[in-house]
Design a protein that fits this description.
Layout: E1 4-5, H1 12-17, H2 20-26, E2 30-34, H3 46-51, H4 59-69, E3 70-73, E4 83-87, E5 100-108, E6 114-118, E7 124-128, E8 139-145
Antiparallel strand pairs: 1-8, 2-7, 3-8, 4-5, 4-8, 5-6, 6-7
């Protein structure tokens, strides 16, 4: 399975000390696309937004849906609309539903892969693969929907 090591660049302290607008001003490869709305109780999380399914309750359930309905691809095959999952993997582990921590959609592959993702109760951002909170993992996979 194509799994890639990654070092995500936004640490917990930076995340805690800055609101969404502050983060987008701090990094030139991070763009705030939308702010959360109090009335929006659905699609509040990365997996709901990326998979367009408000009935998913957590990353584990979303990863199971990915595993059944998508197939893994290499980063060289990646295209706009493909899904990226981020995982925290320790030792010789592999990506699983239990270590999946974040979902994103590839928005561009021009020069480098850019993604759009929803950061929990925070906003919607577009960024490079590495400009995410480091709590989202140290490995990633790219997926394409079956029969697409």
């Amino acid at each position: 399975m194509n799994t890639y090591k990654i070092k995500l660049k936004i640490n917990k302290n930076t995340l805690r000390k800055n609101n969404d607008f502050g983060l987008s001003k701090m990094f030139n490869d991070l763009k705030l696309l939308d702010v959360p709305r109090e009335y929006d109780i659905h699609n509040n999380f990365c997996f709901n937004w990326a998979l367009k399914d408000e009935d998913i309750d957590n990353c584990e359930e979303a990863y199971i849906k990915i595993y059944k309905n998508y197939y893994p691809i290499t980063k060289d095959e990646a295209g706009e609309g493909d899904i990226v999952t981020f995982h925290i993997i320790r030792g010789q582990g592999i990506p699983t539903a239990l270590n999946c921590k974040h979902f994103a959609i590839i928005s561009s592959i021009y020069k480098e892969i850019k993604i759009k993702s929803k950061w929990g109760l925070r906003g919607m951002f577009e960024s490079t693969l590495t400009r995410l909170p480091n709590i989202y993992g140290n490995y990633y996979q790219i997926w394409r929907v079956k029969n697409a």
